[in-house]
Amino acid sequence: MSQLLSLLGVFGLLSILAVGGGTAILPEMKHLTVTRLGWVTADQFVEIYSLGQMAPGPNMLMVSVIGYRVAGYLGALAALVGFFLPACLLTLGASRLWVHFAGSPWREAVQRGLAPVAIGLMAAGVIAIAKVATRDAATIALAAVVTVILLWRHINPALLILAAGVLGLLVLRG
Amino acid sequence: MSESPPPPRVSLRAIFRTFLLIGATSFGGGVVAYLREMLVENRRWLDDEEFLSALEISQTLPGLNATNMSIIVGDKLRHVPGALAAFFGMVLPGTLVVMVLGILYGQHSHNAWVAGALDGVAAAAVGLLLAVTVQIARKELHGVVDVVIVLVTCLAVSELHVPLYIALLVIGPVAIWLYRPRAAARRGDR
Q1: How much is the pTM?
Q2: Rounded Cα–Cα distance for residues A21 and B65 (Å)
Q3: What is the ipTM of this complex?
Q4: Which chain B residues touch A35 with a CB distance below 8 Å?
Q5: Which residues, including other chains, have CB under 8 Å from residue A162's CB and lie 6 or more apart?
Q6: What's the CA gap between A55 and A50, in Å, rounded?
Q7: Contact B181, A106 (CB under 8 A)
Q8: Helix/strand/coil percent split, chain B, to 5
Q9: How far apart are alpha carbons B22 and A58 in whole angstroms?
Q10: Chain B residues inside the 8 Å CB shell of A160
Q11: d(CA A101, CA A136)
Q12: What is the pLDDT of residues B43-55, one digit of tens each?
């Protein structure tokens, strides 16, 4: 029971802090689930994150897998409810309020000011995953190639993810 | 959005089915592109301006872009029931898939082939996240002040390990204050 409550609490807290989306909370999520609570190891955290990349929809749905490893199916449910209920209620309320402030210069200021904060948090999220996922020449090269290709042309990222999985299976195993 | 003409009457079933389709087909993290194609081009539930306005709100508010968009668009079309239909459509397919993958992973995580494949995906995910961050930065960052805010935020969280809520409570208000209406007008910022 206490495990379920802490899943609700941890993911609920993370979700309302997610200014800049899922990537922005990766460092804090890693810190809480790996270092503070020991629910998963750093390697497992990144592997579970990779599972999220292979599923359709928002890749943060992988919080269900962390919940599942902590407390089975109920744990998965607790993680999802925690991660989505508070943030969705907030969005519902705040977006209605937001429409009221259309044209207000302060609304513009909030938007303008929070954009670089969100980008800074996203960058920290990239670093948090990269510290674990790119530790040798092969994985660094793979990440660099994917970055360059995506910045260069419009290609479905899912194809690159799939290709990297196959490449990893053949080259990175062991 | 309050000034625009009332949106077309859309059934809850249609909302659910449309978001289910988006949730099931949007691989690789770029949900926004799928949303735009479906909601603006295909279903014509929103025009471009309404879509961008909803996107701005969902990017500024905490939470995932994809689910925030589903809530905002569902709410606009059919209020709270519409928001629920859109949200569940968006997350159901991915949740089922990631849970199946998670259970399989739990059984085979010591398998060298599985570990190798996941290492490859993780490295590609770093590339994908980096590319998305660079693309957003190129679009949203307009000057030295922006770059300084990005660096301070990133260093605080990544290197100094400042807890996220403290970083947000300190840097967020300062950033908004820097772009307060008068200051923005004086700098000739947009």
Answers
A1: 0.89
A2: 6
A3: 0.90
A4: none
A5: none
A6: 9
A7: yes
A8: 80, 0, 20
A9: 10
A10: 28, 124, 127-128
A11: 50
A12: 999 998 889 888 8
